[in-house]
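quick one before i forget lol
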Amino acid sequence: MSRNAACHAQIALRQGDLAEATRWASLAEEDADACTFHRALPLTPARLLLAQGRKKQAAKKLATLYGTAAEAQLGWGMLRVRVLQALAAPTAEQALAFLGEALALGEPEGFVRSFTDEGELLVPLLRKAATEGIAPRYVRRVLAAFEVDAKRRTQKLPGPRHVLIEDLSERELEVLRLLSENLTNQEIAERLYISVNTVKTHLSNVYGKLGVPNRRQAAAKAAALRLID
């Protein structure tokens, strides 16, 4: 599946056009995804299975993908998969457990789009999580983002200035600024009083969100999008 076909399939899914999504997916290879970050973690096929109501098949694929993400320590990927697993779960109890893990992964960095990107079907489950006392403040923030998205669709409000796969956290922006100053990982770690491994984790997240493979392209894209001063 070419990445181009995967992109079209994902766009069609978000527009609710299952027939068009299926058509584009038929042109795609199994391991392609709309996001370059997911070359080893293709999520579009699982999303298509969910849209087709084939939850059992989606759950099986997602279980494999979660293992891949966990082994590679792709925190952002683990979060994305857990959200989809919540939608694919056969019972409400299992769905809530998956969502709880997703919220635990996302809350420290304040991820929002990882949830809203998966659509309104997640809203009832998020509300249930809040009533169960699972990360209630964070859930309210995510639900508020769903409401903003809904208003944009109905009132045609202007979208955000930058179109990213996922918003960068404040810490990731700090790392990105220092990266753009050509500091090494060790120098960034010393400047921010964090470990080198933590710097590497932040950089991995930054690359994924910007859709770039390396430091040079990350700095160039950040400058082009005016993400840093």
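fyi Residues 34-39, 157-162 have pLDDT under 50 and may be disordered.
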